[in-house]
Design a protein that fits this description.
homodimer; CBS-domain; 64% helix
Chain lengths: 459, 459
């Protein structure tokens, strides 16, 4: 049987003989097997993964979407669930357990062995978004007095149940972290060398309560395969692996971008499709309504200068451009500053240096845009109605000056707000771009009408 | 000597004796050593890293910022440069070589050994942003007929020069990829088992010309430590490691976000600080100017309805709120769709499903905002000037209907544009949020004045 056919029609898999199925399993990554069979029914998926060996079964299952995992588990008896969960990686197992209906949790727990029960209890004790909540307990440890040969033998023993055997952590009697040694170092060392002679001592670690984003950044910065996590007593309680770090970074980036665009809610796998209409509505309306209210402030400013607008309709014509341009330049500088803060390229202490740079960039933009606006008004602005005796030159100067000032203030506000948020230990991305747009609309209209009033006067 | 003192004042390091320096080096990650000494002068840095063994020296040097690497190299003679570069990881070495001034390139090249020269030549032949440009050549390979014991021995031999010995690639005679085997599998297998009996065959790989983002996503999806890269002849030519995948993802995240906010340019390390004022200006002005021009279209619409505005100044008052709200709701749906497309949660084929969902969310937002606007106009709108005989009820209805329609069209446009870009194989993030804001300003003003004209009429 051709495998391509199976990819196209996974239902065929349910009918193949054992040898063909093992061939299919053997030559594929568990994530691919999982993807291929994910279109089948819960019963069919279970029947298929039952025929894989227990480690592969747990791996394929762990790669299924969490919702699908829950529905499959719902069709099984608690003994089968317990046996399946026993072979899952501890972090995935805990994630699944936390999502199960309470009745199922209660029936599964007694069916699990003592060790897994306690593991679930300790891994699920940590707050979402912390190192403790993303760590796994399937790590390898060594005693300092072992020889290299003994250490390699020990890693062989734990390998089937450890996610990461390429790093081994050397623990003291109270499970405190003495050092770590890589498998590379172990196989390169003399077989009789002691672990504590060859281990690295300055181990980079996280604490259980550390933010998951910090954890991912450390793994990235130091090119690690895993980062050890210690508790308040300085005892090793888990590790976060490089693949989890990538998932954390993706999730955090999405949340940052959504927050920056004024969208609430945490981001999980396949969130867009899975979130219902009400969920989307709840994530979006708060900013939209708040900013619509704030937008009315712009309205009041327009109303206050109604008289001026009635005389110089050309001012109304340039209003949208002024508002858009302020929003755009402000959002650009805010985006750059938010991102540079997130990447730790800058800190809130660099405020003067950043403002200096933004001011220079803004002045260049202001001159360019001011010149364009001046040309537009002066050469093509003659059609609009205005009282006798007002020169187009004066109006063109006023509009381009206002636009230039608007560009400079918006750019500086865009850079200052996220720096201020960072200074107050808030996430800089709370300075959502829509909010910024609305704020610089208000400052922009005030600048615009004030300059217009001063330079053109009106009656 | 206390190490904390050295962190605070790295200049002290230049004076410590050999034992203290080796102690400092031994207990620290090369990235930390690199960070500590990076504030010193080029000569001091070179003097310090000269005193580390040649592997550590190359590692510390590789962790320095690329600009700093170039200035240090500029102070050395070509033999020292060649010796330093020989020990650097091949991908970092090639990156540095490409940035060197041409004269230095020409003097360093002959000083390098044949193998490194060819390595630089082949690694630097690939276009930026492809798998070929980010891969490294420091990978481990095995012949299929080796026994496990021989394979482990072979990995021991290559370990000092290989970035990744935990994955070994099994090659045929033309260097074609037959399979791969992890060190974990090797140490768990019988010592007499042949590599081709225990290797995985369905190897996940990339081609040299593949986009670097695809490479990073594969590494993430399949939880890999490294991804093999093959050329047009299907021969293995390099690997991309997990740590490079994280760096690629960070870079791509930043570029996506900047593109989405209408900022051009590729993003490299510490780009915000390093990019000069002119560079920032060049990255930002094109969108800002283009959108300012487009914003004038809004101006023409306002001008066309000058008469209506002159009679009903209340319309001008609600104009900013209408424009802001359209921009905000459109940007929200665009952000969600762009991000869901980037994460492959949805494809452009899901267009109907997405529009259906966005329509429902938009209707909820429209009803909410319409009701707020109606209340605002009807209960507090009495102060504005308007001709005799026009009921506030009619004006309130018109404004809230226009706002509701604006919310619905903006949300749908915000979702449709990135889907359309994806359909045309463009990056969905080209539908920059500022552009969207300006576009929905135009559609919004047309909706607003058309409805106002129809429902209130005017003279």
């Amino acid at each position: 049987m051709k495998y391509a056919k199976l990819h196209a029609n996974p239902k065929l898999l349910t009918a193949v003989d054992s040898a063909a199925l093992q061939g299919f399993y053997g030559s594929r990554h568990p994530a691919i097997i999982s993807e291929v069979i994910s279109t089948l029914s819960e019963e069919e998926i279970w029947a298929l993964i039952q025929r894989a060996d227990k480690h592969l079964r747990a791996e394929i299952f762990s790669h299924l979407d969490e919702d699908q995992q829950i529905s499959i588990v719902g069709t099984l008896n608690s003994r089968d669930v317990a046996s399946l969960m026993t072979d899952m990686p501890p972090d995935k197992r805990t994630d699944l357990f936390k999502e199960l209906p309470e009745a199922l949790q209660e029936s599964v727990l007694p069916a699990l062995a003592q060790a897994e029960r306690e593991d679930i209890r300790s891994l699920s004790a940590h707050e979402e978004g912390t190192a403790g909540a993303v760590m796994t307990s399937a790590y390898a440890t060594l005693s300092p007095e072992l020889t290299t040969a003994q250490a390699i033998e020990r890693l062989r023993e734990v390998a089937p149940d450890s996610e990461m055997i390429y790093y081994a952590y050397v623990l003291g009697e109270q499970r405190q972290l003495l050092g770590f040694v890589s498998l590379k170092k172990l196989i390169l060392a003399q077989r009789s060398a002691r672990v504590d002679e060859i281990m690295h001592t300055g181990v980079i670690f996280a604490r259980v309560e550390d933010d998951q984003e910090e954890v991912a950044r450390k793994i990235q910065k130091y090119d690690l395969l895993a980062l050890p996590v210690i508790n308040a007593q300085n005892a090793l309680v888990g590790i976060v692996t490089h693949d989890d770090a990538m998932d954390i970074m993706t999730q955090e980036h999405t949340e940052d971008m959504e927050k920056f665009m004024g969208i609430g809610g945490a981001h999980e796998d396949a969130a867009y499709i899975k979130t219902g209409v009400w969920g989307h509505f709840r994530n979006r309306y708060p900013w939209v309504v708040a900013l619509a209210m704030l937008g009315l402030v712009s309205g009041f400013i327009v109303q206050r200068f109604e008289g001026l607008l009635l005389q110089f309709a050309i001012l109304a014509m340039f209003m949208p451009m002024l508002a858009d341009t302020g929003g755009n330049t402000g959002s650009q500088s805010a985006t750059l500053v938010v991102r540079a803060l997130a990447l730790k390229e800058i800190t809130s202490k660099d405020v003067l240096r950043i403002l200096g740079k933004e001011l220079q960039v803004a002045l260049l933009l202001a001159v360019l845009l001011g010149a364009i606006a001046f040309g537009r008004v002066f050469f093509f602005g003659g059609g609009s109605s205005m009282p006798e005796g007002f020169s187009l030159l004066r109006i063109a100067s006023a509009i381009s000056l206002a636009l230039g000032l608007q560009v400079v203030t918006s750019t500086l506000i865009g850079a200052l707000l996220p720096l201020g948020a960072a200074k107050m230990k808030l996430d800089p991305a709370v300075v959502a771009s829509p909010a910024l747009t609305t704020i610089v609309d208000i400052t922009g209209l005030m600048i615009y009408f004030t300059i217009a009033k001063l330079m053109i006067g009106g009656l």
